[in-house]
Amino acid sequence: MGAITKLLVPNRGEIAVRIARACRESGIISVLGYSEADDTRFVRRFFDESVSLGSGDARDTYLNIAKVIDAARAAGADALHPGYGFLSERAELAAACADANITFVGPRAESIAAMGSKAESRHLMQRLGVPVVPGYDGDDQSLDVLTREAALVGFPLLVKASAGGGGKGMKVVRDASELRAAIESAQREAMKAFGDQRLLLERYIEEPRHVEFQIFGDSQGNVVHLFERDCSIQRRHQKVVEESPAPRYSDELRQRMAEAAIAAARGVSYQNAGTVEFIVTPDNEFYFLEMNTRLQVEHPVTELVTGVDLVRAQLDVAAGKPLPWTQDQLRQRGHAIEVRIYAEDPDDRFLPQSGTIAKYAEPTGPGVRVDAGVTEGSEVGVKFDPMLAKLIAFAESRDAAIDRLARALRDYVILGTRTNISYLRRIVTHPAFREGLVSTRFLIEHEEELRRRMPESVPSIAAALSASGARTPARATNSPQRVTEVWDSLGTWGR
Ligand code: ADP
To answer: Please, which pLDDT band fits residue 469 given cuts at 50, 70 and 90?
Structure first.
C-alpha cells in the first residue's frame, strides 16, 4: 500500500475506459493490458500505455493470472485495477499482486475468498444476523441428503452453484420429480464453469425484486453505504436495467436493508468498493443473496444520485487513504436509470451479434451519461462479451429520468450490428415500468408487449438514411429486417 503512480487495467471495453479516465484525473499513468484478439483501438486512446496479454481468447489473456502479473511487471506498474468480470473476484489475483508488491485496487484476498462461495457467505451472514433465503447450504452433497433437504425447503426451489456467478449452474425446480435431473445438470454446469460442483438449495421466491447496496470500506475500518440500486429487470438472471432509488419502497425498508448491508461489510472488515445483494419478496421481506467484491457494471447510477466518483475513491482507498466521505455526508438525490446496450438480436433469441460499427452517434444533453467501449469503425467480435456501452439518465424525479432515458435511446444511433436499443426503449416506456411495478419476471411477464411490431410498410433504407444525413453504410441492404432496424435506430418508431 502506498501512493499509486502507474496502474495496469487487464480488462476491456467501457470499464477499461472508465478506469483510465479516473487515472488521468488522479495523475496516475494508466496501462491497458489487452488481448490481441480484441479490437482495442478505441479503448487505447484513453490510456497512456498498453501491454499485450497475448493473442488468445479470454482464457489465455484476461483470465491468465501469470500473464497479467508479468504484464504489470513489464510495464513497471505499481497497482492493478481488475475492473469487473474476468479476474476481478479471484482471491488468487489479489494474493499474487500482494506477492509481487503491486497494490490491488479492491478488497483484501481474504474478503474475496470469504464471499466467493455462496454457501460460506451464507454461513457468515447467518452468524452476523443478516437474513438469508431459507435453504440448505451444508457440506454433505450426497444425492440422498440433497433430496431430503429439498423436501424440507419445499417446492419450487432453486438449485444454485455455490461457486456460481452470472446465473450459471442455477436451476428452478418446481416439483420433486425434476430434482434429480436439475441437481445433476447444475453439478455438471458448475464443474465446467467454476471447477467446483458444490450446490446449495434455496426456496425459490416468486416475483422477487433484486435490490443491492453499494458499500465502501477503508483500511482505517470506516464502512459506509451509498444507497441502493434496483436491478430487478433481468434476462436469464442477468441485469438489463438498473436504477436508484428503488421504486415504491419506503425509507424505513431501505434503511433496514442498508443496516444489514453495513453489517455484512463490517463482518468481513471490508475494504474498497463492494455490493451486498438482496432478494426482496412481494411482501417486502428481504434476504441476503451474495456480496460482490468488486466494482459493479451499474456503479454509474450510484455515482449520479450521490455525486461521488467511485473509481477515484477506489484508487484513494487502495493507496491507504481514508474514505473521502462519512455516512452523514452522503445523500441520495434525484433518480438515475441505466440500461446496458448489447450487440444482440432481441428478435432472434438475443443471439450475440458481430460486425463493424458503420455509424455511431451517442446521445448527449443534460443528465445523459454514456460509458462506451466502442465507436464508429469498431469491430464487434464474438470472442468477448457483447456489451457495447451503458446509457445512464439522471433527472430530478423517476418520471423525468424515464422520459430522458427514452429520449436518449431514440437519439442513440448504432448501425452495422444489431443492438437491443429499441428493445430497451420498449422496456423503459412500458406502462408497468413507469408505475415501478418491476420484478425479476418483468421481461417474461411482458414478453408479448415488448416484442417489436413490424410496421405495415417501411420507407427505403436510403430514404431513412438521407433524411438523417447519415452516410449509407456499405453493408446496408433493403431487407425488411435491416430497414426496420435502421429506421428504428434513427428513432422514428418503436415508442
Ligand atoms: P449469480 O451469482 O449467478 O448472479 P445470484 O445468487 O446473485 O447468482 O442470483 C442472480 C439472480 O437470480 C437474482 O438477481 C435473482 O433474479 C435470481 N435469484 C437468485 N436467488 C433466487 C431465489 N432464491 N429465488 C428467486 N430468484 C432468485
So the answer is: low
Q: Give the global pTM.
A: 0.92
Strands 199-203 and 157-161: antiparallel
6-105 shares its CATH topology with 215-445? no
Q: CB-based burial of residue 304 (10 Å sphere; 0-12 exposed, 13-18 middle, 19+ buried)?
A: buried
For domain 215-445, give its CATH number from 1.20.1250.40, 3.40.50.1240, 3.40.190.10, 3.30.470.20: 3.30.470.20
- The CA 289 to ligand 1 mean position distance, Å, reads 7
Mean pLDDT within 384-404:
97
Give catalytic status of residue 294 as yes or no: yes
Identify which of 159, 289, 298 to mutate to test ligand 1's pocket (most ligand atoms within 8 A of the CB).
289
237 C-alpha to center of ligand 1: Å? 6
Atom of ligand 1 nearest to the CA of 203: 23
Burial class (CB in 10 A: 0-12, 13-18, 19+), 262: buried
**Strands laid side by side in the 335-342 sheet:** 286-292, 272-280, 209-217, 223-235, 238-244, 335-342, 387-395, 368-372
Domain map of the chain by residue range? 6-105, 134-203, 215-445, 457-489
List alpha helices for 280-387, DSSP H. Answer: 299-306, 310-318
Question: Do residues 289 and 131 make contact, with C-beta atoms less than 8 angstroms apart?
Answer: no
Tens of pLDDT, residue by residue over 433-468, are 999 999 999 999 999 999 988 766 666 666 766 766
Q: Whose CA is nearest to atom 13 of ligand 1?
A: 237
Percent of the chain, pLDDT > 70?
A: 92
- The sheet with strand 29-34 has its strands ordered as 49-52, 29-34, 6-9, 79-80, 103-104
**Lowest mean pLDDT segment, chosen from 114-123, 246-255, 317-326, 447-456:** 447-456
Q: For residue 282, give the C-alpha cell.
A: 412481494
- CATH superfamily for 134-203 is ATP-grasp fold, A domain (3.30.1490.20)
What would the DSSP string read from start to end of 438-456?
Answer: --TTHHHHTHHHHSPPPPS
Enter the C-alpha cell of residue 446: 411482458
Buried b (16+ CB within 10 A) or exposed e, 408-421: bbbbbbbbbbbbbb
> Does residue 23 line the site of ligand 1, with CB under 6 A?
no
Nearest alpha carbon, ligand 1 atom 11? 237
CATH of domain 6-105: 3.40.50.20
Q: What per-residue confidence (pLDDT) applies to 164? A: 85
Compute φ and ψ for 395, nearest 5 degrees: -155, 175
pLDDT above 90 for 169: no
* Ligand 1 neighbour 210 (Cβ under 6 A): yes
